[in-house]
Amino acid sequence: MAGAPTDRIPLHTILLPVIGVAAWLAIGKAGLGPVALLLAVVLLGSVLAAVHHAEVVALRVGEPFGTLVLAVAVTVIEAGLIISLMLGGDPNPGLMRDSVHAAVMLVLHGLAGACIVVASWRHRNAEFRVEGANSFLAVLIPMATLVLIAPNHVVSVPGPYLSPVQLGFVSVVCLALYAAFLFIQTNWHREFFLPVGGVAGHGHARPSARIALACFGLMCMALLSVVMLAKALAPALQEGVQAVGAPIAIVGVIVAAIVLMPESAAAIRAAAQNRLQSSINLALGSAVACIGLTVPLVAAVSFWIGQPLQLGITAGQTVLLALSFAVAIITYGTGRTNLLCGIVHLVLAASYIFSVFAP
């Protein structure tokens, strides 16, 4: 992982996350204006800091654990953000659905497409392990179907809701699938998720345990800073969206994109270094973790506070999701990809964004 020094921690990667958390505590929510611009700058700095610390941790623990650390950390904090909005804001039964759907589509096409384009542009034909990519899809497709599509077709309660028993069952299934996937990824078939040709050193020595542990803590703080600043900037985003006449639903997409920025930066950097397998581990891994962890956590909170969850997506979104998985199966079915595949994924990402503006 070029670019991540392993013998020291740059000062700015320590200060920026601390400043971000302190700014959120001091300012809270910000409307349009200079304060929002300042918070946005600190947010971008926190993203870069999170990527740096994640790369150092990844060098210490190796693949696929390195990419797994960032994916799980971001997902847990994203779930925390959704739960905090559920507990402190106006009732929004579709909040989890919109967040999960946006994260899956942005990761499956926006991030994956960008990584494929970058890798193909710099290295023409990028390679990855079919077994690993298919393992991600084998878990992601049923989880997304159970959470986003099946609620529209149940008969126990009117869709797009699930009964408490059904929601509990879906939550357990998602958690079980994710646990099984983690066992496969980190133990049983770890080789499926290693770079083609083995693990490369990328020109850096393995960092010490002390440096790696410090970077792990700083990475968590940086991720917390990103999420908290994204929450603080939400009013400014809403004001900006309303000012240009865009649908309010786009705010959820923007917030999801902000939360995914650390993973996106790390994945695109890996793709530029011809490590497409690491990019896939980050991109698809975050989508799997998003459903596997977020749904059970948010469902538990919904049971606790008695707030129902609206889960099913619209018919048009269902068609686009089905098309997305069909294209993903084709893309990841050969172990090699090219510029055309990346462009197709980016077009589907643009189609999803367009459907938010014009449902």
Along the chain, the helix and strand elements come as HHHHEHHHHHHHEH
CATH class: Mainly Alpha
- Sheet with most strands: strand arrangement: 1-2
Low-confidence stretches: none
Write down the domain tally: 1
| Helical content band | over 70%
Q: What value does the average pLDDT take? A: 81
The CATH architecture name reads Up-down Bundle
Shape, principal axes of CA atoms: globular
The CATH topology comes to: A middle domain of Talin 1
Largest sheet: 2 strands, antiparallel
The chain-level structural class is: mainly alpha
User: CATH homologous superfamily?
Assistant: NCX, central ion-binding region
N→C terminal distance: 41 Å
β-strand percent reads under 5%
Got a strand count? 2
CA-atom Rg in angstroms: 20 Å
Helix segment tally: 12
Q: What's the assembly state of these chains?
A: single chain
Features:
359 residues, A middle domain of Talin 1, mainly alpha, Ionic transporter y4hA, Alkaline_pH_Ca-Antiporter, globular, single chain, two-stranded antiparallel sheet, transmembrane helix, 12 helices
